[in-house]
Amino acid sequence: AAVVCRRWTSPALDALWRFLDDLRPLFGLLGGLETIHYYVEEEFWDIQSDVVLSEQSWDTFKSYAARIRRLEPADETVEIAPGLLMRALAHCETGILPNLQGVHWKMDGYFPILNHITAFCPASLRHMSFDFIRDNDDIAWWMERMLNGLTSSPIKHLESFEFKADVPRTSNIEDRFPCGNALVNFIKTQPDLQDLGLLTFEIVDPTLIPSLLQALPRLCSFHVNMENFSKFQMCLFELGQASPSLKRIAIAGPLTSEDETLTKADIESLYQLPLVEELKLWLDCKLLLEVQDIQQMGQAWSRLTSLILYSSTEPGIPLSYLTSFAQWLPLLERLAARFDCTGSVPSADAVAHRFNSLKLLIIIWDQNPPNNSATLAEFLSMVCGPEVDLRVTSTGLRAADVLKGQWNWEFSDKRANKDFLIRMKRMYRVQAGCLKFLRANHDDV
User: Fold this and answer.
1) Exposed site from 4, 154, 379, 401, fewest CB < 10 Å?
2) For residues 195 and 250, what is the distance between their CA atoms, to the nearest angstrom?
């Protein structure tokens, strides 16, 4: 565009530089870059030794840096030489990237470069996420230093923040709390935070949960991955006590907790959150749910539109309870759960309630296909209208997908899906024929 008309030069450059996934093109504007070795294993990018930096060079650098709104550098491109960063900070009064709005740091390398992150934290930043995928003994110490630096940085108005790191599974879990304390202290400095994701929640001292949530009055979305069952239960309780503004909740329970059971007593604290629109619970344990529990859900969460109740162990929620979901959660648009399809279901003429708003129903079961598939298809055709996208599978859901808000899962049981859809389409045709017949008779009368 800039080649066609000079007037388009600035808008074209704004679009080209709005997103950056490599810091080298920006620093390369100052002159040629080369790799230098500080110590045996430390390699950084720096300006070539024969380059003389003028004020004009810095003005060009600052004009392009001001265009960047989103930064997602790859690990190997982050390691700008500390000396070059210090010179850039000295020439950029409002920060190296003064208009940066979002940044995602994904690292699997040399962790001293965490010190560089604070150099790219202007007051304009609204969205920040971390993903450290290397498990070594030094990571907790380096992350603690980084988080302490962020706490005193100009960042004070984040709207979304996500943190994930592979922290060594030391024998003493308290060894990880200093890093967790630094994480909590930083989050508390962000009163405007609306979306919070803690995918390494085991580093946080459980006693800090209440004060953390109370410091975030505008929090609307919270997704978290727990390490042990007792902390999972505590998190559910504290959410109900301290986060009345929450609308979206996604919690993945701990692995290797098959002997544990989540009951109504664990969930009912969430009934104090009347604004909840989306609730996702991924459990590596049993889930015990009764009809009256579904009624209480509907009475407490009148705005609920999306619900995942996934448990990795059998038997699951009785499929006949779908009528209770339809009765008490009339606004529900998406539902996914492990269902027990071995029990009896109401006959077609005994189904009293049908989903009004449901668009997607995901049924996870262990037996595929079930022996009573014809009866189940008849029942489902009465509970769900033809507009519902029904998917059945014996493959479990992944915790990571649930936490990310994933709904478009790939299902391996395509045959089961196809068989059910064929049977249900037949039932819908029968229902449509009966309705047409009744209307015709009514008109004659």
Assistant:
1) 4
2) 11
Q: Where are the alpha helices (DSSP H) in 218-319?
A: 229-242, 264-267, 291-300
Structure tokens belonging to residue 245: 């503004």
Kindly give, in sequence order, each residue whose CB lies less than 8 Å from that of residue 30, ignoring residues fewer than 6 positions away: 47, 51, 53, 57, 58, 61
* ∠ CA 321-327-328, rounded to 5°: 95
Q: Which two tokens stand for residue 4?
A: 């066609």
pLDDT in tens, the chain (445 residues): 455 667 778 888 889 999 998 888 998 888 887 777 665 456 778 888 778 888 898 999 999 999 999 999 876 556 788 788 888 888 888 889 999 999 998 876 555 566 678 888 899 999 999 887 755 566 777 788 888 889 988 999 999 999 887 665 554 555 566 778 888 899 999 999 999 988 766 667 767 777 888 889 899 998 888 766 777 777 777 777 777 788 998 888 766 556 677 777 778 888 888 899 999 988 877 788 888 989 999 999 999 999 998 887 777 888 889 999 999 999 999 999 888 887 777 777 788 888 999 999 888 876 655 666 777 878 888 888 888 888 887 777 777 777 777 666 655 555 556 777 777 777 777 666 666 656 666 655 5
Tokens, residue 282: 């991924």
